[in-house]
Structures are given as structure tokens and as C-alpha cells.
Specification:
There is one protein chain. The chain is mostly beta strands. It has two domains: 3-184, Jelly Rolls (Sandwich), CATH 2.60.120.1440; 233-271, no CATH class. The chain is 7% helix and 36% strand. It is built from one helix and 17 strands. The chain has a 17-stranded mixed sheet that branches. The two termini are 45 Å apart. The model is unreliable at 1-13, 15-30, 204-226, 234-242, 245-259 and 265-271 (pLDDT under 50).
């Protein structure tokens, strides 16, 4: 499959997920009277907390609000879906949630790793920010990383615009001391796992390399049946291929001639 066809297939799969989920997350007014919805938890591992006016521990199906600061520890991660854009927050990460004026997710990474994937066929761009660099998330797959005061935003799939500069897949915009430099992705195949610890029930994502590793809720790949081996050479093992058809014994079983050169009868087949 060509790279272009592969990316199109990946976007189609995620589009199906977006259609299966509410395009606008509705907050529970009894819990968050002042909440502007920013997404819903669709996958989670270990303990993850969100802090706004107070701190709360997140669980599958929980709503996130604009202004929430999401924090994970070692082994923790959370996937947040809103409007067809998936935000995956990795371990040892702090990220603040907001919304763009167009109503799409706007995520500011403060420390750690965040991956955002958008497979919508159309719509306004989301945003992923790190150390002043801002990436437009629209029909692409991007990952931001910050460690030791330096950061980068990388494109895994699709064209990515960072501060107006276009990145091809496999390229990164490195941010250090306010400067923006274009560099290759320094670690081959480095991707934050999307939808690790998927909620049940949750979005079903086909097992494609675009979203790795395969979520536990994904269906196995559909493989074509292997062709049957050709029969061995030599004379026929029964009389069915001769004029007059097969010989059938009184018990209803087909009489099988010996395998060629062995004198050993083959398996019996019912008529």
C-alpha cells in the first residue's frame, strides 16, 4: 500500500470513530455547573488527575473542562476525544486544556508528551502548543515533547504547520530558547501509544500501524484465506475422476484407493 493510501485509510478509520462519538461533549450540569466541555475520557492507564477549581481523579467516561490541567505520573496516560480529535497525554506529563475560537481542542503542553490525531474529513484545525510553538492539528497526526526546558513538535502523518512553517511527516520543529529549528525526528518510530487502556465500551480502532500499539478493543486484521495446496501428482486416489463416477460401499463410505506408491489407504470421506 502506498504511503498516501495508508494515510487515507488511517484517517477513514478515525473518522468512523468520530461519527460514533458525540461531536460535542455535553457536561453534566450537576457536577460542573461552570464547565465548558473540552472532551471525554476514552482510554486511561494508572492514576490521572485533572485540576481546575479542585483536583479530581479521572476515570473512563469522565468529562474534561476548559481550564483543566491534566497530570499523569509514571505509567499513566489518558486519551481524550472531542469533536473527532483525539488527544493522547503520556506519562509524567502536564497539559492544560482549552478550546479554540472555532470550538476545537487547544492543548498546551507544559511537560512530558502529548499526541493529537485528527481524521475528520473537514473542519477547523485544533491546536497543540509547546514552549510558544503552535501546531495546527487538521487531518494529521502530531506529537509534542518537552523535557529539560527544550521541546519539539513532530509530524507522524500528514502535513503539519508549526508557527506557519510546514513540516513533512518524519520532521520536527525543535523549540529551544524561543528559536524554532526544523530537524528530523531524532528517534525512529517514536510515538506515544494511542488509546492504551481503552475504555469499555469505547471506540473501536482497526489495528493499523498509524495508531500503535493496537488498542486491546481493536478487531483482528482480516486476512484472505490461504490457498489450498495442489494435489500430489500421479494417478487419482479414487474413482471419481474416471468415467462412471465413484464406487460406494454398502455402508455409505467412499472406497478410497491407496496413495500412490504406498499401498496405504487414504482417509475415508462420507458420500
Amino acid at each position: 500500500m502506498s504511503k498516501l493510501s495508508f494515510n487515507r485509510a488511517a484517517f477513514l478509520v478515525l473518522s468512523a470513530v468520530a461519527l460514533a462519538m458525540p461531536s460535542v461533549v455535553q457536561a453534566d450540569p450537576t457536577r460542573f455547573a461552570d464547565c465548558t466541555p473540552a472532551g471525554r475520557v476514552v482510554s486511561i492507564t494508572s492514576d490521572v488527575v485533572a485540576t481546575r477549581s479542585a483536583q479530581r481523579t479521572l476515570a473512563c467516561g469522565d468529562e474534561l473542562c476548559v481550564g483543566d490541567l491534566v497530570a499523569t505520573g509514571a505509567g499513566g496516560s489518558v486519551g481524550i476525544l472531542n469533536g473527532g480529535i483525539l488527544t493522547q497525554i503520556g506519562e509524567n506529563t502536564r497539559a492544560k486544556l482549552a478550546m479554540t475560537p472555532a470550538g476545537t481542542p487547544d492543548v498546551e503542553l507544559q511537560e512530558g508528551t502529548v499526541r493529537m490525531i485528527d481524521a475528520r474529513p473537514e473542519g477547523a484545525a485544533g491546536r497543540l502548543a509547546a514552549l510558544g510553538a503552535k501546531a495546527d492539528i487538521r487531518r494529521n497526526d502530531a506529537e509534542a515533547r518537552i523535557a529539560s526546558g527544550a521541546g519539539e513538535i513532530c509530524s507522524h502523518s500528514g502535513l503539519l504547520s508549526v508557527n506557519g512553517t510546514r513540516l513533512e511527516p518524519g520532521r520536527c520543529a525543535a523549540v529551544d530558547s524561543g528559536a524554532l529549528r526544523l530537524v528530523p525526528d531524532g528517534v525512529e518510530g517514536r510515538k506515544l501509544a494511542a488509546l492504551a487502556g481503552s475504555c469499555d465500551p469505547g471506540p473501536v480502532i482497526a489495528p493499523i500501524a498509524h495508531i500503535a500499539p493496537t488498542p486491546p478493543v481493536a478487531a483482528p486484521p482480516q486476512r484472505a484465506a490461504a490457498p489450498l495446496p495442489l494435489p500430489p501428482g500421479g494417478p487419482s486416489r479414487n474413482g471419481c475422476e474416471s468415467p462412471g463416477g465413484c464406487d460406494v460401499n454398502p455402508g455409505g463410505y467412499q472406497v478410497i484407493e491407496p496413495f500412490p506408491g504406498t499401498g496405504d489407504p487414504g482417509p475415508l470421506g462420507s458420500s
